[in-house]
Structures are given as C-alpha cells and as structure tokens.
Design brief:
This protein is of the alpha/beta class and 156 residues long. It has two domains: 5-36, no CATH class; 45-154, Ribosomal Protein L15, Chain: K, domain 2, CATH 3.100.10. 37% of the residues lie in helices and 20% in strands. It has six helices and six strands. The strands form two sheets. It has a four-stranded parallel beta sheet, with helices on both faces. A two-stranded antiparallel ribbon has the order 1-2. Helix 2 (45-61) packs antiparallel against helix 3.
Length: 156
C-alpha cells in the first residue's frame, strides 16, 4: 500500500512522507477516470468524410452555408436538428430547396412540392415528400447540384 501526503501551499503541491512504487512525477500526473473519457472526434467514417467535403466546398466557393452545416454536424448527435414535415410545410414556400442538418421525421403532411436534402430521412417522410412530387437528396448531391448554396432554406 502506498502512503503519500499531498499539501497545497501557495499554489505549489508539496509531496511528503514515504512513497513506494510511484515516482513523484507519476503521482502528480495520475488522473482518475481519464481512461473513461469519450472520444473527441466522430467515429463514423462516412460522416467524417462528409464534414470534410462540406468544409472544402465552403473554402472553394466562399459559401458560408456549407461551413455552417459542417459545424452543426460536428456537434453531438443529440444536438442535431430533427424537424417534422409539419415544420417544413409551415415555414418553407412551395418549390424551394430545403436543407436539414440532421434527420427529417415524418409527422405531419406535405402539400407542396419540395426538394429536401438531409443527412438522414425517415421512411415515412421520404414517402410523403415523393408522393407530393418532391425529391429527397443527400447532402453530397445537393452540394454537386448547387455549389454556392444559393436559394437553399436551412431548416432546423
């Protein structure tokens, strides 16, 4: 068993008593729980590539939309946007392209024709959008179709 006394005097940590098995540097650098910390970066390689592509597109075209979406997707998934179709119908005029930086959910009705690009779309939302005459795109497809991001409504 190790026996150590740590005292803080004027911002300096003093180590006293008898220490066996640990050097003073090891004792001061040991942090409890550091091995249990969460990973700092995203682990999904497809998402990491998409975020990199969005940032590169923003640098090439100067469009701030792609950088904004990349930063939103870099955050924790629990903070991503998850709007329903009812919000799409309420806030977006007919015929516009709508971008959702997260998952579009299928609660609500769609009466207008929309092109919708999202990271993820529920099966119900996909069916309702296509039944109304709209298209469902991936974020990469929207980037290729509209590199500057002009006329795109950001929902979420």
């Amino acid at each position: 068993m190790q026996n150590a006394t740590l005292r803080r005097e004027r911002g300096i940590i003093r180590v006293g008593a008898f220490i066996t098995g640990w050097s003073v540097g090891d004792l001061l650098l040991k942090h409890r729980g550091s091995h249990m910390s969460k990973p700092v970066s995203k682990t999904n390689p497809n998402l990491v590539d998409l975020i990199g592509d969005l940032k590169a597109q923003s640098r090439e075209t100067g469009a701030p939309l792609w950088r904004d979406v990349a930063l939103r997707l870099s955050k924790s998934r629990s903070n991503w946007a998850q709007p329903n179709l009812s919000r799409l119908s309420r806030h977006c005029p007919e015929g516009v392209t709508v971008l959702v930086p997260g998952k579009l959910l299928g609660s609500g009705e769609v009466s207008a024709k929309h092109d919708v690009a999202a990271y993820s779309v529920s099966a119900g939302a996909r069916e309702k959008i296509e039944a109304a005459g709209g298209r469902v795109l991936s974020l990469a497809e929207l980037m290729n179709e509209n590199p500057k991001g002009s006329g795109v409504y950001l929902l979420g």
